[in-house]
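Folds abound. Consider this:
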Amino acid sequence: MGRGRAVWQHLTALVGIPLLAATVLAGSLTGRGVGDLQDARSAQEQLRTSEQVDAVRRAVDAELLPTLVLRIAQDRVLARRAGLEQPDGRDTGRATLLSRAPSDLERARAATDRAIAGVGQQEAAVAVGVAADQLFALRADTDRGLHGLGALADDFRYVSDVLVVAEREASVEAAATGLSRRSAPAVADVERLVGLSTSATRQLPAALVATVLTGEDRDAALRRWRAASGDLEHLDDPEQEPLVAALATGTHDALHSPAAQALAGGLSSGWALDPTSPGHLGGVELLALRPLSADRDADLAVLVGRAHGLAEAATAADAEAAASSLRLTGVLCLLALLGGTWATVAAARSLAAALRRLGRDARELQEGALLDRPASGPRELRDVARALRTASRGLHRVREQVEAVARGDLGRAVELPAVPGPLGGAVHASVTSLVAAVRARDALRAELAHRADHDPLTGLRDRAAAEAALEAQVERSRRTGEQVAVFFVDLDGFKAVNDGCGHAAGDVLLRAVAGRLRDGVREEDLVGRLGGDEFVVVMADISVEDALAVAERLVELVARPVRVPVGGDERERTVGASIGVALQRAGSVAAPALLTRADTAAYRAKAAGRGRVVLFDEALRAEVAREEERARDLPRALAAGEVLAEWEPQVLAQGRVVTGHRARPVWHRPAERGGAVGTAELVRCAEATGLGRAVGRALLAQAAEVLREAPRGGACVVVALTDRHAADPAVLDDVTEVLEATGRPGAARDLYVEVGERALADPDVVAHLHVLRALGVPVGVVVDGLTPLRDLPGAPVDVVVLSQDLVRDDPRQQRVARLVAGASAAAGVLVSAEGVVTEEQAARLVGLGTLCLSGPLVALTRPGALLLS
């Protein structure tokens, strides 16, 4: 085997190549610096070109107005359109213009000629030369009267556009050179202010041409005037202030000077040139604006000049910076090459000596010698020497790891640091992989166990797990004697959010509610999701008072707004919570019965107006028992005719004239069976027992009797259908039988049917209501603000009835009532209200546009016999 090359040779190659690369890089940096310098100087030249072209463009635009004025004064027809001469020949300013306009035009042309003569940039001279040739030809044609007024204005605008294009090309080329952060905003300001000046100089001429021309020529001139005015408004947007701070004040002053404000108040108004507007501007008024326009144009010209000056100063500073950077780069590159060469030679000599010592140590170690001399040389070589001394200690550590694996002490094996080198790394990696596999298996088991009894959406215990935990808690209370509380949480208004905003929004809302429920209870308490929008909370060792306080806090937490996704955006949505609380001590109530009691209490909370907490106490237990007894007795009562309608008058909100009667079903139950049952309890009992249709048929039959006995064209009757009855296809036959039973045509107009707001979520109910409306039966819906307002226009509804909840003196309910009334009016649906108690409520409802009222304020209900009498 050969001896190989010396270390210094390798180092020379190792360092020489980077030095060569550094030399190439230095050349590249120098070339880049030269390019930056050339770009900066090129940007300066382009800005000078832009400035000189803009001066000519402003002169051409300024020459147009006196040219137009002279032509109008010379043409009697145009002068009369401009109001300079009356139809009877009386002079109202034409003679004055004829005497002054030629000298004004001469001065304007002289100013243009001076601007053209002042062009010194070669690129500017080319563009200006083309425009000047067209301008001189246009002047000659104008003096001979060869152009009409509209064509004259178009030709001048064409010459100006040629200069605008040249000016923008110069600005674009200046920006394309790669401007610095200092120069780029300045060049952008030049472009913006030139555009502002161009629109300003063209505004008044376009308005003057539009005033004296007719037909398509006037329409074209109006479009140009509107374009110029619109550009001025857009360029005056406060959000588009000049990027260079030095121009911000000047821009504001120029656009808000007295002259500019006067022009903006008159000339830029949308009605300024509309002859039908009282304050429109005629030719005389527009000619009177010339001094103001000239002042504004002069202010903008000064501002454009300042912008050019700032931009040129910025590019000059860029050029100077590029030159300085170029010089500094050259010096630094030269110093780097010299220093690198010297450092290479010195490092090579030092490193060669250190490597010779290290090689001697390695040979001694191979022979079995113990190395104890201190390490020397560069840091890396000292590290190698120390590694040789620690090799034996590393082998001992490998033995320790192998022994730990053998005896199953995996934790100890992972805790030991890895031995440097391939062997130590392989052993440590093997041990780490083994421990990781065991831990991953345990984590997977835990995850599968969690998924088996937790809701995937909210992370809470699912129904089965929650019921099992409740069962265990009740069993433990039987041993310990502690009290257990169960909260049944039913969300209010969740369906409206889920249907109106989408299921994604509903999922976000459910996760937020779940988090708030967890945050609102103790760490050891159970929170679970029973399904849909129903949750359960189980708390142990808690008093009645504390349980009710926690429930109230949960109601408050749930009611806070939640941001949910709606159509690609996020909106705040709010739901409420109705909570039923049931408690038991020492296992006195089984877990299923305890959950049922909490559910019953939650139902009472929702029926009482939502957002409430109801405790399942002895009073509620007795009420549930009474309801069960009523449910068993209701079929008998229907057969015996004990369910009768009592009629509540409905009057016009203004005038209080009776327009109809609302049927309120009352169960006239014998006293020995518990006494009379009111409307709300009867409807709830009928729905629970599936007898909603039977009650509805009884009401419809009594409504038919009232309609049959009432005079034709008299007041209407309103019958409320339960949700199940409205969803039953038989409801169509029931209503048809009532109409036939009245025995007179047109009875459909006097029979109103009402459904609850929730019924509209059932497609079958909506379909049945459409059929009833086709039969001529008006349909009303009693709302409490849960239905999305956007669904109202498509619903089969003629009347929206504000429920008693929305009529109450509650600011929140009043806001909902205003929204519902406004949406109903927009959809062309009438509004009425029930449960009105006070005159203040009636007055407020009248203000909302409510047509009819009913309730204790109007009159008490009356039996059907009394109504017929």
Summary: Residues 290-366 form the longest helix (77 residues). The radius of gyration is 47 Å.
